[in-house]
Amino acid sequence: MDTITEAAVGGAPLSPARSRAAVLVVAATTFGVVTTEMLPVGLLSPLGDALGVSEGTAGLAVTLPGVVAALTAPLLPALAGRADRRTLLVALVLLLAAADLVSALAPGFGVLLGARLVVGVCIGGVWALAAGLAHRLVRAEAVGRATAVVFSGIAVASVVGVPAGALIGGLAGWRWGFAAVGLLALAVAALLAVLLPPLPAERAVRPAQLRALLRLRPVRVGLALVLLLVTGHFAAYTYVRPVLERVDGISPDAVSGLLLLYGVAGVAGNFLAGATPARRALPVISGLLATVLALLALARGSAGLSIALLAVWGLAYGGVSVTTQTWLQAAAPRSPEAASSLLVGVFNAAIALGAAVGGAVVNGTGETGVLAVGAGLAGAALLVTMRSPRG
Prior knowledge:
The protein is mainly α. It has one domain (16-387): Up-down Bundle (Growth Hormone, Chain: A), CATH 1.20.1250.20. It is globular and about 55 Å long. It has helices at residues 16-51, 55-58, 60-80, 85-105, 109-130, 134-137, 143-172, 174-195, 207-214, 217-237, 240-245, 255-274, 278-298, 303-317, 320-331, 336-364, 367-387. α5 (109-130) packs antiparallel against α16 (336-364).
């Protein structure tokens, strides 16, 4: 990976090794944040059983952080003013570690939800700052690749983080899953402090700047795609464990391995989409998600077909984050941090909405219903991409 010719704001040039290390530690940060955010997905059944709540209610552990993150993401860059972004990232990741450790020790579901609210603050803040950092760490021609690396933390969290948390939960109890991600966050905070260069704010983000971006049609289209795709995905994916457990021929013990398969496909999808123009990738992603979720709802009697569809699901959704970030950055090239904060706000609102909708549907009509909802919203996203000539 190439380096930039000047540091972010008037400092000494970054060496190629320092540039690579900085991008990788930001990717490690996104990995840690997404692992923490999605960990309850892999532990939903044992967590609900241990704390005496239904699977639909346990899904609030995903919904509430998403709501808080959606509110935090647009606000934190404005409240932070010109504070150094490295300092802010370190502080947020340390707070994330504390929230994870409180979750591990929670005596009841209420305390767990309180800790998850703090997780939401950290998610929104970290993503608003980290999503647009690539252009400050690498040469202009390498920004696309560096952005894909940063967003690979999402897919790698699916490959390693969530399955590992589920495995730890299965072997030692769900509390150890939360304890493990807390310790991971402490290690990441230390690496951020050592490896990132100073990152003073390029310009303070003002509320008026956010409103101005929302008046741009390509920005509104990009945010609409995020809302549809991510809501549809999480309506289904939050409940992927019970979905898989009810497929003939798939045992509960096999779910962790299948989530690993999903994550491997997601890593491939992230880098494949990162190398493709967003205006070309997003229609393909939307169409694949709509098709896969619809077919998965019909494949409960076939373990082989369900597993194949799960892999395609991971491949398609793995490209959503990097392509929507690329779309928003192209739509607002002069305001990367403001555009990232809007993206992260809508993204996390969609996670919360998807988990909430999925919880209501799964409690009412079962797992087939959440797959149908996800397919319908992805189909709506496909229509939006077909009607929009710009990416």
